[in-house]
Design brief:
By secondary structure, this protein is an alpha/beta fold. The chain is built from 9 helices and 14 strands. The strands form 3 sheets. An 8-stranded mixed sheet has the order 4-1-9-10-11-12-13-14, with helices on both faces. Strands 3-2-7-8 form a 4-stranded mixed sheet. It has a two-stranded parallel ribbon with strand order 5-6.
Length: 296
């Protein structure tokens, strides 16, 4: 097999998103006409890889999918964005996860119904390990834990940085070792609060406690939605505001796009503050299109 080298390798679970835009959320037993609909790819790591690729980075997605319709659509959409999908494992024993999303324009809120696929753990082969060893960044969020243990060992040995996506309501003790092993930590405020077990103190205090709990990371960023993010630079925590677009139509995938924008700027050799700026703009631009992925 010809190995395609990438600057960024992502390990995660891809999801097929079926999104419909409605004026308001439907009530029980009602029929609502959608303004429009789209089929897209979701899953935090997949969206970050799609965003980074769209911005110009060379990226590879690793996951285990099936041969069902949803799996095939996922692979096709990622390939359209320039993501290397040649190393995605596919099995007749696996089916892809799917999500049905209603995005309400009146309240700018979402309702998501998630249907897990028949997942099998990703098993890394020698080609996968070679790709990780030659990448600049390995981007993870705790999915496929057995594969991550092996991937992180290779990354540590070969100097590949590990980037962790800590989404809101996603903190759990089972991923603690992966968080501790990461060089780049970009997490939602709720994740940071859960990690330090305090939901009452100020965001400033949470940022300091989060850094103190995971001191080995090179980069600490705490995102706070439409209030922007806080990041640690030159021994100081700094605030960067969000860029709120007047063209916002759907906020699905904005947080994941932030990761993709950051990683693209990072492997491009930008300063930390420039990486934050690129990430913020990527999130804002994502809000201007339907679905989780950039428009091709």
């Amino acid at each position: 097999m010809n190995i395609r080298k990438s600057s960024i390798i992502g390990i995660g679970v891809c999801v097929l998103d079926r999104l419909m835009v409605v004026g308001d959320h439907p009530s029980a037993d009602s029929v609502t006409k959608a303004d429009c609909s789209i089929v897209s790819v979701g899953g935090g790591i997949a969206v970050a890889m799609g965003t980074a690729s769209h911005l110009g980075s060379s990226v590879t997605m690793l996951d285990r999918l099936g041969h069902d319709e949803a799996s095939t659509l996922i692979v096709e959409r990622l390939r359209e964005l320039g993501v290397n999908v040649d190393s995605i494992s596919r099995s007749t024993k696996t089916t892809a996860s799917e999500a049905s999303i209603w995005s309400a324009t009146k309240t700018q809120t979402r309702s998501i119904v998630f249907c897990p696929g028949q997942e099998l753990d990703l098993e890394l082969n020698e080609d996968h390990l070679e790709q990780i060893a030659e990448a600049e960044v390995l981007h993870i969020n705790g999915r496929h834990p057995r594969a991550l243990e092996k991937a992180i060992r290779i990354a540590r040995d070969k100097g590949t940085l590990v980037s962790f996506d800590g989404g809101a309501h996603r903190y759990r003790d089972g991923i603690l070792d992966f968080v501790k092993a990461s060089d780049i930590l970009i997490v939602a405020e709720h994740f940071a609060r859960a990690a330090v077990d305090d939901f009452d103190v100020s965001i400033d205090e949470i940022c300091c406690r989060f850094e103190a709990r995971f001191p080995s990371a090179q980069v600490h960023v705490v995102t706070v939605g439409d209030k922007g993010c806080w990041y640690r630079e030159s021994n100081l925590w700094k605030h960067h505001p969000a860029v709120l677009s007047e063209k916002t139509i759907d906020t699905t995938g904005c947080g994941d796009a932030f990761h993709g924008g950051f990683l693209h700027a990072w492997v491009s050799g930008e300063s930390l503050s420039a990486c934050i700026e690129t990430a913020t703009l990527a999130a804002s631009r994502q809000s201007e299109v339907l679905g989780s992925m950039p428009k091709v």
